[in-house]
Design goal:
Blueprint: E1 3-10, H1 33-38, E2 40-47, E3 53-59, E4 65-69, E5 74-77, E6 95-97, E7 103-106, E8 124-128, E9 133-138, E10 145-152, E11 157-163, E12 167-172, E13 178-183, E14 192-193, E15 199-203, E16 209-214, E17 219-222, H2 230-233, E18 244-249, E19 255-259, E20 264-268, E21 273-278, E22 288-291, E23 296-301, E24 308-313, E25 318-324, E26 337-342, E27 348-353, E28 363-369
Antiparallel strand pairs: 1-28, 2-3, 3-4, 4-5, 6-7, 7-8, 8-9, 10-11, 11-12, 12-13, 14-15, 15-16, 16-17, 18-19, 19-20, 20-21, 22-23, 23-24, 24-25, 26-27, 27-28
Length: 371
């Protein structure tokens, strides 16, 4: 029987201020230094071949990109604050790994609309772990910031979706061209490519249906339907957001979708048909899905009541609940899951935590026995 053997959390910085990260975008060191310097959340995780865990997060002081060393159990700032402008306070679900070890990322915001005309827009950046150099490549959509990116390394493309206006764009790494497909009316937490290289997202604020972008024809196909409970699950992440909390290529011909309502679904890219596979737990949010092996997926979900881990067996069509994500020594529970990463040996899972009402978010480390 699979299980969580132990759980511990790692604190980057913490705060005594109880306002949430999006309560006040006008945070400054003059108005509230504790909130400005110490209020952080973990929002994006990337395990690298160098053995380190790269973390994107939220921080008012623009220090939003960190490296966690599992051996030393410590964090190193990667210095994004030195290249940031004033509105870049988050790396949302926007860290992608290239085959040469390069990391591509994108910056997000928390600004209010009265600041929109001041804002340059979110940047796509490239990070070299060897040299530590951060290079900003482009601001693909002026004034809007980037909530999520997906890398197609073979074609040299980065796909992105923006906030607060939900736009879709394609950035060409070779030459820097931007294909701006403008307003699509919905947004995924993170998208995926199918086996043919097509990008899948959501469109239309009223039904949050699926769309497919074909990079060979540069055309979008808009489908009339989405996830089974799309209308019910919309707006859970934030106003206007769609129901797709996570999407991955399962390497079996299908895309797997975790919904904001907490369900797991399977998308057949050949037909755009979605099959509901069930709910691993009685809670909203399922933003973490990773492949363990040809048979199993590891899932991380949970909202407010706490996080959990589960395994889905694709052959048997069954869930196995591994338990709540709670610190083994203190009993403290994770508040809200935002991302998941698992080591190559499937022994350790890292879970990003965000939106905690009375402290900063932490990085949670779960030691697993998956049989």
């Amino acid at each position: 029987m699979a299980a969580i053997n132990s759980v511990r959390y790692h604190v980057l910085r913490d705060t005594t201020d109880t306002r949430q990260l999006d309560d006040d975008s006008h945070v400054s060191p003059e108005r509230n230094r504790d909130l400005y310097e110490n209020r952080v959340a973990f929002t994006s995780l990337l395990l690298h071949p160098d053995g380190k865990l790269y973390c994107g997060g939220t921080a008012y002081n623009h220090d939003i990109f960190w490296r966690f060393d599992p051996a030393g159990q410590n964090f190193t700032s990667l210095g994004y604050e030195h290249v940031a402008e004033k509105f870049e306070v988050k790396i949302h679900r926007s860290l992608c790994l290239a085959s040469d070890g390069t990391i591509y990322g994108a910056s997000a915001c928390l600004y209010t609309l009265d600041e929109r005309l001041e804002a340059p827009g979110g940047a796509i950046f490239r990070f070299d772990p060897g040299s530590g150099k951060i290079e900003k490549l482009a601001i693909p959509i002026p004034r809007d910031y980037i909530q999520t990116i997906t890398l197609d390394e073979r074609r040299g493309l980065i796909y992105g979706m923006t906030y607060p206006v939900f736009k879709f764009f394609v950035y060409h790494l070779d030459g820097g061209q931007v294909d701006d497909y403008d307003y699509v009316g919905s947004i995924t937490h993170i998208s995926a490519l199918d086996d043919t290289g097509c990008f899948w997202g959501t469109w239309d604020w009223s039904k949050h249906a699926l769309f497919k972008y074909d990079p060979d024809t540069r055309r979008i196909t808009y489908f009339p339907r989405g996830t089974p409970d799309a209308a019910k699950d919309a707006n859970i992440m934030y106003p206007g957001a769609g129901p797709v909390d996570c999407m991955i290529n399962g390497r079996d011909g299908y895309l797997y979708i975790g919904t904001t309502g907490g369900a797991l679904c399977r998308l057949d890219p050949a037909t755009a048909e979605i099959t509901s596979l069930g709910r691993p737990a009685d809670t909203r949010r399922l933003p973490g899905i990773v492949i363990l092996d040809e048979r199993r997926l590891l899932l991380a979900g949970g909202d407010r009541a706490g996080g959990y881990l589960a395994v889905y067996d694709r052959q048997a069509g069954e869930f196995e609940h591994l338990g709540a994500i709670a610190d083994t020594k203190t009993g403290r529970k994770l508040y809200r899951v935002h991302d998941l990463a698992v080591t190559a040996d499937n022994r350790t899972a890292y879970v990003a935590e965000t939106d905690v009402p009375d402290r900063s978010g932490y990085l949670w480390q779960c030691e697993l026995d998956l049989g």
